[in-house]
Amino acid sequence: MILKIIFSFTIFMSVALVGSSEDAIKEEDGVLVLNEKNFDAAIGTNKYLLVEFYAPWCGHCNALAPEYVKVAKELAKKNSAIKLAKIDGTTEPILVVKHGVQGYPTIKFFKENITIDYNGGRTAGEMLAWLEKKMGPPVTQLDSISDAQKFIDSANMSIIGFFKDASSDAAIAYETAAVSRIDVDAIPCGKASDAAILASFNVESDSIILFKKPDDAKVVHRGPFTVDEIDRFVRNNRLPLISEFTHETAGEIFNSDVKNFVLLFVNKTNEVEFNALIKEMKTSAKKFNGKAIYVFVDSSYDENERVLEFFGLKKEDCPVIRLIDLKDDMLKYKPSFTDITEANINALVQGVLDGTIKPHFMSQEVPEDWNKKAVKVLVGKNFNQVARDKTKTVLVEFYAPWCGHCKKLEPVWDKLGAEYQKQANIVIAKMDSTANEVEGVNVHSYPTIMLFPADSDEIIEYEGERNLEGFKKFLDSGGKIQKKKEPAVKEEL
Ligand SMILES: *[C@@H]1O[C@H](CO)[C@@H](O)[C@H](O)[C@H]1NC(C)=O
Ligand SMILES: *[C@@H]1O[C@H](CO)[C@@H](O)[C@H](O)[C@H]1NC(C)=O
Ligand SMILES: *[C@@H]1O[C@H](CO)[C@@H](O)[C@H](O)[C@H]1NC(C)=O
Fold first, then answer.
1. Residue span of the signal peptide, if any (predicted)?
2. Which pTM was predicted?
3. What is the residue with the minimal CA distance to atom 14 of ligand 1?
């Protein structure tokens, strides 16, 4: 008992000591050094706080450090209310988790009670400019019809919040969304409350309208007006009627709650044809605004070859349309038409939305010698008959011809096939997943190895080490034993 009290006391003392030494906020070169204990106090006493999460081993962080100090000194010189702070993420895991930090450096601006993710440049000048912009009003007040029209004309995409009462909860939520969620550099935000302006835009009840000037289109949000809903509205509608698929735009294109995508694979350098097809796509896109996202993939651009391959397409096949649905698994739809017209596209999209058009699964023809060797060759067309044969346990490697890890696996796989060749109830097989797809089997990386046990509808993915011994244990145990310790290295699709 006494021991326990002494023990508790020592813990209490040490906690108290740590507490008192870390509560005071240290500064290094004008930058506050924060930790879990003093973080809340720092936010409480500084209305505007820019916080960098860094790691000592992170090169970009080290490069940023002198610029960060410059910003702190520049702001101090101007008597700015903005303070700079830093947090060593490696010693502050709780703060890292709490603030959703995924990588270093991550910078967040705590502006009163709003948190804004920093997305500006890494030089002192760029950081100062970003801060200045964020300190200004995020939403431009529009007081006349001509102001509003000029505002819309000044950018390809813009938003105006029309609220009868500028101090209503809805209007405040809109301003908060503009500060904390909307990239107002890309999409400037305005607001209007004047009755004459509202009337000229046919606004009868509170509305947020997104204007897309190049498409001469607008999308109206009539509520609910919470920060999350407004953010969702902007994310789901901010794409132009038709976007080009590139490395840079991919994230934005797929960061939407709309999960149907109409993809046009087209040679962009063939201008006449390109423009004509885009016109057909745009008209259809207007009709399905909010239901499907329209994208084109330039087939003349070599880096898109993988994307074409993913759809089983070659440059010569273009122009061609595909539709994908990313709701659960990825489902692909192939039109029955070859003539890309607005009416045909509309019918395809409507059919997919209604569920009257079935997804398309690619398949090569079954090779004549598919079962001549120890490792059986599967394609879409013979997959179910072989792999889903209830009398057999079937282990399938899903590969891509270009995948290095698959090439390395090939001799092992052949050996495995040879070892089980005599066992009639076990089949070792492989399928080229770039040319063949099977309903219910989702391959997201290469190689993927799956077991289809006899007498079962189960599919067991193999995630152990890719060697003969591992595979044999896995097979002999009916898929029950696999060493999952080290995640296997895979190549992304
Ligand atoms: C910030 O806090 C103040 C005071 O509590 C409150 O009036 C204001 O609405 C808050 N702002 C946001 C955007 O939550
Ligand atoms: C509008 O978009 C066009 C085409 O992408 C671009 O060239 C132009 O600079 C944009 N205008 C503004 C004001 O951003
Ligand atoms: C794309 O079109 C251009 C212009 O018509 C042509 O020169 C080029 O060969 C085409 N590229 C492909 C891959 O078809």
1. 1-20
2. 0.62
3. 113
